[in-house]
Structure prediction request, 264 residues.
Amino acid sequence: MNHVEPIRLAQVSAGYGQRVVLDGLDLGLQQGTITAIVGPNGSGKSTVIRAMARLLPTRSGVVLLDGQDIRSFGPRGIARLVSVLPQSPSSPPGLTVRELVELGRFPHTGLFGRLGVEGVLAVESALTLTGLADFAQRPLDELSGGERQRAWVALALAQGASTLLLDEPTTFLDVRHQFEVLDLVASLCTSRDMTVVMVLHDLVHAANYADRVVVVDDGRIVADGAPAEVLTVELMQTVFGVAARIFTDAESGRMFCLPIGTGS
Prediction:
């Protein structure tokens, strides 16, 4: 069994311009698990995702991809191992669902390359797994928000990477579509042994879909562990500045973090 971490940030510092956002951050991922990254606005959550995918250069430290310095990989090499779904992704007008998902094969075929048998099978499998086979010929801009988000997940699946990085995948979705997308991600983690990292604002989703919750504040990890260990009344007050009630629903078994005010 391969025990190499899919991705490790080793004492990574990164930022934008003169501003340092991550400061000596150390974080490794475990294969086949879901990690939720949470924290206040501006804490550095999305920057962690960008550093993991080499979308943002590090100022110090190293990012290891399957145990190797990520700087030794070309863009296609990284894309074969890591899929990234950014906040609010956009596509050219009129693009169909199938055409979007086919773009996920770029690391294997090049911009104008033919899909080939393996590529066609990967696209069909991604459409089926995300429940979009019947939507394949529909323009993406005619779909609901939840359906569009599933189409982007399908693109990431067609890419064939074993690690999936999602930056706020439930943003702008209504409650039902939020659950649909998160249920899909959870099922993929189980059925495909994928490693998933999700930046989330909703702590209830983090508590109930993640195996591990990493709390980032001011560019540093301030808590890391199982949801029930990390999401406490004390943490809600010190990190998020709110008083809260933490409880588990007896019927569903779901954990809830209920903010009740700033306490001031």
